[in-house]
From TrEMBL:
It comes from the Bacteria. This is Globin. PANTHER family: TWO-ON-TWO HEMOGLOBIN-3. The keyword Electron transport does not apply. Belongs to the truncated hemoglobin family. Group II subfamily. Signal peptide: none annotated. The lineage of its organism: Bacteria, Bacillati, Bacillota, Bacilli, Bacillales.
Length: 131
């Protein structure tokens, strides 16, 4: 897959990633399961998410340029994340993709691609034990 056919380009590049993130985080902060995991000032988190998603989907390596290697599992280890958290996160992302009018086939691809990392971050069982 060349740069022109990357998921990032197929999604619409920087403008779409930004719209997706701006549609996503209002859902996260209203979600009773997810909201406690995020700091009150969501702006810096949104910026990092834009950088990460751009890079993750084949766009410019914005996250690595600003913060080094993503090491996303390590960055999420301080938070107790269950399978329910992962599912809620993906549901919020799917709703955000629908809100911005992402075509269904592309939305399905995006959510499927994000499912791997979302469930990779799970580090706690539902009863609170470490996985």
């Amino acid at each position: 897959m060349n740069k022109q056919n990357s998921p990032y380009e197929l999604m619409g590049g920087a403008a779409t990633v930004e719209r997706l993130v701006h549609a996503f985080y209002p859902r996260v902060v209203k979600n009773e399961l997810l909201a406690p995991l995020f700091q009150r000032d969501i702006g810096p988190v949104m910026e990092k998410q834009i950088q990460f998603l751009s890079q993750f989907f084949g766009g410019p390596p914005l996250f690595s340029e600003q913060h080094g290697h993503p090491m996303m599992r390590a960055r999420h280890l301080p938070f107790r994340i269950t399978k329910d958290h992962a599912a809620a996160w993906l549901a919020c992302m799917d709703e955000a993709a629908q809100e911005i009018g992402m075509p269904e086939d592309l939305r399905t691809f995006v959510i499927d691609r994000l499912s791997g990392p979302a469930y990779h971050f799970v580090n706690t069982e539902l009863d609170g034990r470490e996985e």
